[in-house]
């Protein structure tokens, strides 16, 4: 049985004047996968998403979308949908009018009403279907943008920061929609700075830095790339915990004057590989010290991202300032 | 790097087809008409002229400075022409600025370009849809202005004969045809400004300057028209068509300025639209920093239009016998004498005197500009004319004096300077009471494009 990836890029390059946006990018996105695309600002994510949507063509390399080579602007095959740089809908129109107009543009004709209603229902906007967009929150606009993309029943869905402005309930709703699409065979490419979203949704991620791929593969493999992490440990007896941790081989307790430690109150910050952490927990339990909380200070995905893209490990103050 | 593939078979799909032009057009129309600004302006276009004419009909003071303003109480058709004259000065350039000047820039402001191009998949059809939709809305606005002014005038004043710019009385049916033709003609002229609006909107992106381009062009051309320009230059400007429609209301019709205005407007509309199209299809929609074409707008926008103007001036100079200002003594004399003869007949009818034909009157005018030290040509308010005519069976030759204010666009207002019984007073005493004196102030229009020796 022949299998075709939803998107396949080899050696893609793209420049804007003197600025190299993409430099030899390879990418494979199989059908039915939610694929994360991450990278610092200016890494080339938007440019790559634009190529996938057919907004522009690469200067070099090859790109195949749904099995068809793409060699000209708007040369992507039917079945590709999504948005880059925000959903881009019209505030003077109602949600239904926005979608109906798009359905008409895509040639849905007589079945337009059903298609629009289905899309609105999928993203949970049926109740506000006849409200003008100018009263919508950012999260509602994001969901409507997703509904607009769903109108075409895409085989490749490209979304730029789809969780922007979503409250937790809306985010869960959107995640469910995307997961269901992937289960039905649609490839979903998500660009996001939200590592928790990517960890929750994506089976694979690609990290771009200065136009190059620095990692692509399963999320679990990426987490492993992060190496030793800092962990926050809260126990029932802080002094005993410090004593026991200090005596555990292969484990480093961050000093009191370490910036990471500064605002942790009774918490202890330790740096160690996972097996050493297991040993620490065992020792604490044997000493009748209760472990109330143990978790990475920086999530593994974010730590790997920072390590791979060469970004400095931010201090807690910097993190809070984001 | 992984390259897993899902266990599904995907046939090679054809490229996604672009949206059809009718769909793109409808979408653009819906977007334009969903804006409150467009709705309010459209509503104003369909209501304000009628209200204005109805209100003016209740006033004793009429806008006599505006062409046909002095006839607003005589016929409902005059009101529509007053509105048309006002629109040609300000309203139409502003309307085109509001609609065509914003139709592309709005997408920049809203950040919707990528969404739109992904949906339509053809910049050409986006351009065509936007151009057609904005033209439709502008046409609806002009239609509203015309319909409202005509209906308002007819309801408030009535369907009576109109005195043309040559003084001839035009039957209501003939007037209706001419008024509608004048509005239709101005629609074509408006297309040139609409195309410039499209060009400004494409070239300058979200900058407010893009929105203002048609209005700024209108202002610039009005300032230029105040200068003592040679007739070929004046006739070759795109604003000429906003004045040329008055030539429909003379007999014979002043076809020279009408044809020149039509051709110049169509050339401007075509060139500006093509330039806007070229700028638009070369745009990179993935460039997040795009904010208008800047220098390219100057090279691809302003310079070609300046070249079009230069070529138009040369063509008009070669194709017409117009020289100098186009306002010469013989033309002024002929135009005034013709208007006087027509209006004399109108006055005779008011006074229940025996009718005489223009041929029997053998009216002539002798004009002088500014005394013996000044050449007798060009615009100015220092023209003085003596009109002479003959009554069949009478030996004496009648004469009346007029002071003329001749504008550089060829329109003049002749103020009667006596004798009082003929043209020296604003009313005449008729058997049924006092009535406006048609010979007191006389409007006329000199054909700038005709040969100086023709008269």
Automatic annotation (TrEMBL), chain A:
<dbReference type="InterPro" id="IPR017871">
    <property type="entry name" value="ABC_transporter-like_CS"/>
</dbReference>
<feature type="domain" description="ABC transporter">
    <location>
        <begin position="7"/>
        <end position="235"/>
    </location>
</feature>
<protein>
    <submittedName>
        <fullName>ABC transporter ATP-binding protein</fullName>
    </submittedName>
</protein>
<keyword id="KW-0547">Nucleotide-binding</keyword>
<dbReference type="InterPro" id="IPR027417">
    <property type="entry name" value="P-loop_NTPase"/>
</dbReference>
<keyword id="KW-0067">ATP-binding</keyword>
<dbReference type="Pfam" id="PF00005">
    <property type="entry name" value="ABC_tran"/>
</dbReference>
<comment type="similarity">
    <text>Belongs to the ABC transporter superfamily.</text>
</comment>
<keyword id="KW-0813">Transport</keyword>
<dbReference type="GO" id="GO:0005524">
    <property type="term" value="F:ATP binding"/>
</dbReference>
<dbReference type="InterPro" id="IPR003439">
    <property type="entry name" value="ABC_transporter-like_ATP-bd"/>
</dbReference>
<dbReference type="InterPro" id="IPR003593">
    <property type="entry name" value="AAA+_ATPase"/>
</dbReference>
Automatic annotation (TrEMBL), chain B:
<feature type="transmembrane region" description="Helical">
    <location>
        <begin position="211"/>
        <end position="229"/>
    </location>
</feature>
<keyword id="KW-1133">Transmembrane helix</keyword>
<feature type="transmembrane region" description="Helical">
    <location>
        <begin position="178"/>
        <end position="199"/>
    </location>
</feature>
<protein>
    <submittedName>
        <fullName>ABC transporter permease</fullName>
    </submittedName>
</protein>
<feature type="transmembrane region" description="Helical">
    <location>
        <begin position="131"/>
        <end position="158"/>
    </location>
</feature>
<feature type="transmembrane region" description="Helical">
    <location>
        <begin position="77"/>
        <end position="100"/>
    </location>
</feature>
<keyword id="KW-0472">Membrane</keyword>
<feature type="transmembrane region" description="Helical">
    <location>
        <begin position="40"/>
        <end position="57"/>
    </location>
</feature>
<keyword id="KW-0812">Transmembrane</keyword>
<feature type="transmembrane region" description="Helical">
    <location>
        <begin position="258"/>
        <end position="281"/>
    </location>
</feature>
<feature type="transmembrane region" description="Helical">
    <location>
        <begin position="297"/>
        <end position="319"/>
    </location>
</feature>
């Amino acid at each position: 049985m022949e299998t075709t990836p939803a998107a396949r890029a080899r050696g893609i390059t793209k420049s804007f004047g003197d600025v190299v946006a993409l430099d030899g990018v390879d990418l494979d996105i199989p059908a039915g996968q939610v694929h994360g695309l991450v990278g610092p600002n200016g890494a080339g994510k938007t440019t790559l998403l634009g190529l996938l949507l057919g907004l522009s063509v690469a200067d070099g390399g090859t790109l195949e979308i749904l099995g068809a080579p793409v060699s000209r602007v708007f040369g992507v095959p039917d079945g590709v949908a999504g948005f880059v740089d925000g959903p881009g809908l019209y505030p003077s129109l109602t949600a239904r009018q926005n979608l109906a107009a798009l359905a008409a543009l895509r040639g849905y004709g007589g079945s337009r009403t059903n298609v629009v209603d289905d899309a609105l229902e999928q993203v949970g906007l049926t109740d506000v279907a006849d409200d003008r967009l100018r009263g919508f929150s950012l999260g509602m606009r994001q969901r409507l943008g997703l509904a607009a993309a769903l109108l075409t029943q895409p085989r490749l869905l490209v979304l730029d920061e789809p969780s922007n402005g979503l409250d937790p309930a809306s985010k869960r709703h959107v995640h469910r929609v995307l997961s269901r699409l992937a289960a039905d065979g649609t490839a979903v490419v998500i660009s996001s700075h939200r590592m928790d979203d990517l960890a929750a949704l994506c089976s694979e991620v690609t990290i771009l830095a200065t136009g190059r791929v620095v990692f692509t593969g399963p999320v679990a493999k990426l987490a492993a790339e992060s190496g030793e992490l800092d962990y926050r440990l809260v126990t029932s007896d802080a002094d005993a915990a410090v004593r026991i941790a200090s005596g555990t081989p292969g484990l480093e307790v961050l000093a009191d004057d370490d910036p990471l430690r500064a605002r942790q109150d009774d918490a202890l910050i330790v740096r160690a590989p996972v097996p050493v952490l297991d040993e620490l927990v065992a020792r604490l339990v044997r000493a009748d010290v209760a472990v109330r909380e143990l978790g990475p200070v920086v999530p593994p995905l974010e730590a790997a991202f920072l390590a791979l893209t060469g970004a400095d490990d931010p201090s807690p103050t910097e993190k809070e300032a984001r | 790097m992984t390259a897993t593939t899902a266990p599904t078979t995907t046939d090679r799909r054809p490229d996604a087809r672009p949206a059809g032009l009718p769909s793109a057009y409808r979408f653009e129309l819906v977007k334009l008409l969903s804006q409150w600004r467009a709705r309010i302006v459209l509503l104003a276009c369909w209501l304000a002229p009628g209200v204005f004419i109805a209100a003016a009909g209740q006033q004793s003071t009429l806008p006599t400075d505006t062409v046909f303003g002095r006839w607003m109480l005589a016929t409902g058709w005059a009101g529509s022409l007053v509105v048309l004259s006002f629109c040609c000065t300000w309203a139409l350039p502003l309307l085109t600025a509001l609609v065509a000047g914003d139709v592309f820039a709005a997408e920049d402001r809203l950040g919707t370009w990528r969404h739109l191009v992904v949906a339509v998949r053809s910049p050409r059809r986006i351009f065509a849809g936007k151009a057609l939709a904005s033209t439709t809305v502008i046409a609806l606005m002009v239609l509203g202005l015309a319909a409202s002014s005509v209906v308002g005038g007819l309801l408030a004043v009535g369907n009576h004969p109109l005195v043309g710019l040559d003084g001839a009385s035009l039957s209501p049916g003939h007037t209706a045809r001419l008024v509608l033709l004048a509005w239709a003609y101005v629609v074509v002229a408006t297309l040139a400004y609409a195309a410039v609006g499209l060009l400004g909107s494409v070239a300058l992106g979200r900058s407010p300057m893009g929105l203002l381009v048609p209005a700024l062009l209108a202002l610039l051309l009005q300032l230029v028209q105040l200068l003592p320009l040679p007739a070929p230059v004046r006739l070759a400007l795109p604003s000429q068509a906003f004045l040329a429609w008055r030539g429909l209301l003379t007999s014979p019709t002043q076809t020279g300025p009408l044809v020149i205005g039509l051709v110049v407007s169509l050339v401007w509309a075509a060139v500006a639209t093509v330039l806007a199209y070229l700028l638009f299809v070369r745009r990179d929609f993935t460039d997040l920093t795009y904010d208008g074409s800047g220098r390219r707008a100057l090279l691809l926008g302003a310079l070609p239009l300046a070249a079009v103007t230069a070529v138009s001036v040369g063509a008009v100079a070669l194709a017409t016998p117009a020289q100098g200002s186009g306002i010469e003594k013989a033309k002024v004399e002929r135009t005034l004498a013709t208007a006087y003869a027509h209006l004399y007949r109108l006055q005779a009818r008011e006074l229940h005197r025996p009718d005489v034909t223009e041929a029997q009157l053998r009216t002539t005018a002798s004009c002088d500009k500014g005394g013996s030290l000044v050449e007798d040509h060009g615009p100015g308010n220092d023209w003085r004319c003596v009109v002479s005519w003959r009554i069949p069976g009478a030996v004496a030759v009648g004469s009346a004096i007029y002071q003329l204010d001749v504008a550089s666009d060829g329109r003049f207002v002749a103020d009667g300077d006596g004798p009082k019984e003929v043209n020296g007073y604003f009313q005449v005493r008729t058997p049924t009471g006092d009535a406006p004196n048609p010979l007191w102030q006389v409007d006329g229009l000199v054909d700038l494009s005709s040969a100086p020796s023709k008269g």
